[in-house]
Structure formats: structure tokens, C-alpha cells
Amino acid sequence: MTTHPPDSPVKDPDYDLVRVLEESLRNSWRMAAFVQDAAAAGDAELEEWFSKIQYNSLKAGEQGKRLLAARLQRQLELEPE
To answer: Who's near 28: CB < 8 A, 6+ residues apart?
Structure first.
């Protein structure tokens, strides 16, 4: 049985982009705490794993920021003066 996640509450791709951007950066911030906890506990395996997740989340966040900036710039250029 396949389940599908609920639809976005707002049918707006820019809203979805902002939400994913926010979640990516929040996850990166959360992972930083987990990396520190693992390091303090001497658990190199978890420290490395959390660090990789943090890197990927931060990378996604940075990509999202660039994408959002480009989309907003295009919208501004299309708006009549």
C-alpha cells in the first residue's frame, strides 16, 4: 500500500521552496548540536554521520537561497513599473 504525503497547504511553488529552504537550514542547525553531542560522547561514527547530514542540509539550504533569489529577481523584472 502506497501512502502519499498531504498536499501543500498553499498551491504556490514559491511557498514550497521557502518551506523546504527553511527546513533544510533548520536541519543543518539541528545537526550541529548532534555533531557536538556525538563528539562529546566520543562517538566518532555518529559524529561523522551527523556531519554529513549537516553538510547536505546546508548545501540544500544554500541552493534554495540562490534559487529563491533568482526567482524573486525574475518576478521583479516582469512586474510593470
So the answer is: 54, 57, 58, 61
Q: What is the mean pLDDT of residues 56-64?
A: 97
Cα separation, 66 vs 81, whole angstroms: 25
Domain membership flag for residue 71: yes
Q: How close are the terminal C-alpha atoms of the chain, in Å? A: 52
Range of the domain at 62: 13-78
72 in a structural domain: yes
Domain count, the chain: 1
pLDDT digits (tens, 9 = 90+) for 31-43: 999 999 999 999 9
Q: Is 1 inside a domain boundary?
A: no
DSSP letter at 67 equals H
All residues at 6 or more sequence positions from 31 whose CB lies less than 8 Å from its CB, including other chains: 50, 51, 53, 54, 57
